[in-house]
Amino acid sequence: MTSRRNFLKTTSLTTFGFALGVSSFAKDATLKKITPAIVSLEINPFIIIDTAGNITLVNPRPDMGQGSTQAVPSLLAEELEVTLEKVKIVQSDGKGKYGDQTSGGSSSVRALWQPIRKAGAAAREMLTETAAKRWNVPISECFAQDGKIVHRGSGKSLTYGELADDASKLEIPKNPKLKEAKDFKIIGKYNKRLDVPERVTGKAVYGLDVDVPGMVYASIVHSPMLHGKIASIDDTETKKIAGVLQVVRTERPMPHRKSEAVAVIATNWWAALKGKKALKVQWDNGNYDKTLSTQKYFDATYEAAKKEGINYEEKGDFSAKYASAKQKTEANYETPFLAHAPIEPENAIVHVKDDGTIEIWAPVQGPDWALRDVCGYMNVKPEQVKINVTLLGGAFGRKAYHDFLLEACHLSKELKKNVKVTWTREDDITQGPYRPGMLSHLQGFVENGKITGFHHHAIGESIAGQVFKGLKDDEADPWLTGEISPENSKYNFATASKISWTNVKTDIPVVWWRSVYASNFGWGQECFIDELAHLAGKDPLQARLDILSDERFRKVLETLAEKANWKEKLPAGQGKGIAVFRSFDSISAACVTVSKQENGVKIDKVVSVIDCGYYVNPDNVKAQTEGNIVMGLTSAIKDGITFTNGVCDQTNFHQFNLMRINEAPKMEIHIIDSGANPGGVGEPGLPPIAPALGNAIFAATGKRIRKLPFDISNIG
Amino acid sequence: MKTFVKFYISLDSSITTTTMAVFNLTVNNKKVKVDVEPDMPLLWVIRDFVGLKGTKFGCGMAMCGACTVHLNGQPIRSCQTPISVVAKNAKITTIEGIGEVQLHAVQQAWIDEQVPQCGYCQSGQIMSAVALLKTTPNPTDEDIDAAMSGNLCRCGTYDRIRKAIHKASDTIKGSAGVGGGR
Fold first, then answer.
1. C-beta separation of A685 from A521 below 8 A
2. Which of A389, A662, A689, A715 to mutate to test the interface with B (most CBs of B within 10 A)?
3. ipTM score here?
4. CB-based contact A661 B145, cutoff 8 Å
5. Same domain, A316 and A364
6. Which parts of the sequence belong to the Aldehyde oxidase/xanthine dehydrogenase a/b hammerhead domain (chain A) (predicted)?
7. What is the mean pLDDT of chain A?
8. Do B152 and A619 touch (CB under 8 A)?
9. Which of A63, A328, A469, A514 is most buried as measured by Cβ atoms within 10 A of its Cβ?
C-alpha cells in the first residue's frame, strides 16, 4: 500500500526528471536523487527541466524595473535553444544554495553571463548526448533546436522532456562549449519583455499588493529627529478611531543603530494611518536638533577641503608640481543628500509563527541579504525563514536596506500576529537612508594646451563605514575611492595626479543610491575637466581626447560627438556640454543641449552613448539609459534632502520634487557594440548626465555651476 | 522650484472620530457594498475592501498620480477622495476595468513601446492617458504634458509614455501603424 507521504515523494521525483544547478543542493531531501551540476562555485542559479519538458529557472536577481526577469532567462534560453516563453521563472528565496542574489551594483548580467550560459550549455550537451545514445548515432549528427534534439540525417527528434530523465544520469560537462556571439538568437536582439502585459493591466503583484489571511496593519511613528528617545505617548485620540487595535512601542533597526518608534496596529491601513496622525508622542531629542544639520555637515566638508586628505593614490609629486604650475585652478563641487523615493513605499509582511519559523513577503532587492539580516536580528537559522520576494515598485538601492522589514519582524514577534508594515511617503522622505551629500575638492593644471595635472579630494560620509561599520578611520571606503580610481577614470595626466579622501561623519543615515558615489563624483570630475579644458584654451571634447588613449573611451566620445553633432555652430544663447564616466564596467557619455531663457535655461535635448560590452536586450539598455537621464537631471535640478535643526526639511513630493513629463527633454540613446565582457546597464548612464548639463550651461551662458541642486529657471 | 500639477485636489484631512457607514458603489460596472468610515479615501476602499490592487499608493497627497482612477470618466486622485463624496450613482473605473475583454489601445501601445520599467506608477499613467484620449483624441506633445504632468515616474519612462500615447491615438483613430514608431 502506498502511503500518502510516499506517494508525494514519488510524484515529486518523477516531476523533477532532470535538474541542473550550479552547485550542490543535495541537502534538500526531495531532490536528493537529482544530479547536481557543479559548473561554477561562485553563483548558484537553479535550473530544472522536468519530464514534461518544462524549464524552470530560479532567478537570483529580484526585478525592480531593471529587467532581470528577462535578462537572466535570456542567457539560459540562448544556450538551451528554446524561446524565452519556454522558461518559467521562480524568484530565489535567499537561501545559500542560490549564492549571491542581490540586485545591486548593476551586477545581474555581469555576474551571471558565464554561469547561467554554462549551465544552459551543459544541459544542452547532456540532452544531445542522451539522444545520440538512444538513436545510436554520433553526437556530431545531433543538435538542439526549439526544445528538441534533432538528428540531422533522418530529421527525427526527441523533446527535452523525453530525454530529461536519462540525461540527468550523465556526468555534467565541466567546460561545455558556449555558443559563439554570431550564432546568438536572443542575446543582443530586440525582444519584448514578457512581464510588461501584467504591468499594464494592474495584475503585477508588488509588495504592497500582498494580503495574507489574518494579518494586521501597522503604521509607524518614527522619531522626527531620527534617533530621539520616547518621553511620553498619549494614545487617547488614537484609540477612539474605529479599526485601531493597539498602540505599541517598537523599534526601527538600521544596520548601524536602532531607533525608538511607536506602532499603531489596526484592522486596515487607513485606520492605522489615522491612528498615527492622532497619536501624540513626546520625544527626548538630546542634541540632535544641533547635530542633525546638513549645513553643518557641508561646513565640515568645506573645512576638510582646505586641508590635505588621506592619499589613496598619487602619481608624480602632485603637490609640488601644482605649487609651481603656471596655469592652474581649483574648485569645490557639491552634491546633495538625496532620497531614493521609489513610488512604491517601503513595506513588508512578516509572520513569526508559533513554532519559531518566520515567513516573509516583501519587496527586497536581495533576498540573501534580507535573510542574513533577519537571521541576525531575530536570532534564527536560515532554514527557519521563508522569504517570498515580490516585484519591487522601484528601489534604486533603498530596498537593500532592511529597516522596514526588521520593523515588521519585531512587531510580528511582539504581537504574535501576521503584521504588514507600510511606510508613508513622509516616512520614506524624512527618515532616510539617503545618498550621502559629498564634496569634491579639485585641483588641476595645464601645460602647453594639455591637461597634465589633476587631483580629486573626495570628502564626506562613508557608506561602507556607516552601514557595515568595521572600516578603520584611515581605511578608504572602497566605493568612494573606487569610483574615481584609475580603473574608472582613464585620463592620462602626464605630469602628476592624485586621489585623496577625507571621511566626514554624520548621524544622517546613508546608503547606496543609483550608481552610488559615481553619482556624486561624476559631477565634480567632469565639470572640472571642462574648466581645465577652457583654461587650456581647448575644445572640451578635444581636451578629453588629448589625454585619453583607452580605445573604448575614445570610441564612446567620438560616437557621441558624431551623434550629437558636437561640431555644429550654435546660435547665441544655446550651448552643448559633454561628460564621460565609467562605472560598473561600462562607459557612458552624454551631450546635453540647453538654450537661454529669461533668467535660466531650458534643456533641449540629451544624447547618451553607452558601451556596456555584450548586452542582452538593446531596448532594455535604452530604457535604463532613458531612466538614468531622467534621474540624473532630477538629481541636478530638482530638490535635495536637507536637515535643519534636527529635522528633514522635505516631507513629500511637494517639497522633494521629481522631474515630471513636461520637464523631460527629448532624448536619444546610442549603444556601442564593443564585444567586451558585459558591463552594468542599470546605473552607468547616470553619472555623466549632471556634469554634461553643467557644462552645457557654461557653454550657453558663461555661468559655471558647482553646487547641486540648482534652480534651472534661475541660474543667476 | 515650481511644480506643475493639474488635478490637484486638496482636502482637509483633519482627524475626526467617525462611525462606519455602508456605501454602495459601482466599480468596473459591478455593484459593490462596503462598510467603512466615511473619510476613508477611495484608494483604500478600492484596494483593501473591494480587493482591486492595481490602483497604487504613492504619496497620499495627490502629488504622484499612482492612485488615478476614473469617476464618471474623469481622472481623479483616489488617495484624496473620501468615499463619502463619491455619489451613489457614480461609476468608478480602475485599471482592471478598462481592458477586461480586450486590452485597451493605450495598454497595447504601452506594450508595443515597452513603456514600463518597474511598472508601479503605470496604472495611474494609463488611467490618465485613457482620459486624455477621450477628450483629446489627437493630442500634441503639449496636450500630453498638460494631462500627464500629475503622474510621476521615478524610473523615468516619460519619453516612452509620450510615444505610446501618440501610438494609441493613431490606433483609436483607426490608422494603426502610423507614428509613434521607435
1. no
2. A662
3. 0.93
4. yes
5. no
6. 201-287
7. 92
8. no
9. A63
Rounded to an integer, what distance in angstroms lies between the CA atom of residue B77 and that of residue B9?
8
pLDDT of residue B59: 98
Shortest alpha-carbon distance between residue B142 and chain A (Å): 8
Question: What distance in Å separates residue B180's CA from the closest CA in chain A?
Answer: 14
Do residues A224 and A274 both lie within one domain?
yes
Q: How many domains does chain A have?
A: 3
Q: Would you say residue A708 lies in a domain?
A: no
Inter-chain residue contact B111 with A341, CB threshold 8 Å? no
Give the separation between CA A454 and CA A440, rounded to whole angstroms. 12
pLDDT band for position A45 (50/70/90)? low
Cα distances from A537 to residues A29, A452, A554, A578, A620, in angstroms, run 72, 14, 20, 16, 39
Residues A350, A493, single domain; the answer is no
State in Å, rounded, how far the first CA of chain A is from the last one.
Answer: 87
Q: DSSP secondary structure string, A167-213?
A: HTTSPPPSSPPPPPGGG-SSTTS----TTHHHHHTT---BGGG---T
CB contact under 8 A, A392 and B95: no
Report yes or no on whether pTM surpasses 0.80.
Answer: yes
Let me know if residue A427 belongs to a domain: no
Confidence of residue A166 (pLDDT cuts 50, 70, 90): confident
Q: How confident is the model at residue A593 (pLDDT cuts 50, 70, 90)?
A: very high
Q: Which pLDDT band, with edges at 50, 70 and 90, does B18 fall under?
A: low
d(CA A374, CA A495): 51
Which range (A37-46, A307-316, A672-681, B167-176) has the least confidence? A37-46
Q: Which of A660, A681, A708, A711 is the mutation pick for testing B, counting most B CBs within 10 A?
A: A660
Residues 483-512 of A with CB under 8 A from B: none
Last residue of a domain, one of A201, A216, A247: A201
Q: What is the mean pLDDT of residues A554-574?
A: 97
CB A414 within 8 A of CB A406: no
A164 or B48, greater pLDDT: B48
Mean pLDDT, residues A564-586 taken together: 97
Which residue among B66, B114, B161 sits closest to A661, beta carbon to beta carbon?
A: B161
Asked if B154 lies within 8 A of A394 by C-beta distance, the reply is yes
Shortest distance, CA A666 to any CA of chain B (angstroms): 7
Under the banding of pLDDT at 50, 70 and 90, the label for residue A17 is very low
Q: Does any CB of chain B come closer than 8 Å to the CB of residue A365? A: no
- A394 to B120: CB separation less than 8 angstroms, yes or no: yes
Say whether A202 and B118 touch across the interface (CB within 8 A): no
A327 by Cβ neighbours in 10 Å (0-12 / 13-18 / 19+) ranks as middle
Residues of chain A with Cβ-Cβ distance to B155 below 8 Å are: 65, 394, 627, 630
Residue that finishes a domain, picked among A399, A422, A445: A422
CB distance B56–A624 less than 8 Å? no
CATH of the domain at A360: 3.30.365.10
Has residue B43 got a pLDDT over 80?
yes
| Best of B12, B35, B104, B118 to mutate (most A CBs within 10 Å, chain A) | B118
Number of H helices, E strands in chain B: 5, 5
Instruction: Give phi and psi for A328, each to the nearest 5.
Output: -145, 165
Partners of residue A244 on adjacent β-strands: A266
The average pLDDT across A483-510 equals 95
Q: Could you tell me how many CB contacts below 8 A there are between chain A and chain B?
A: 203
Instruction: Give the H/E segment covering residue B135.
Output: helix B122-135
Cell 550608481 found at: A515
For residue range B138-180, list pLDDT tens digits in order: 999 999 999 999 999 999 999 999 999 999 999 998 854 444 3
- Location of C-alpha cell 557608506: A463
pLDDT, tens digit, 9 for 90 and up, residues A300-336: 999 999 999 999 999 999 999 999 999 999 999 999 9
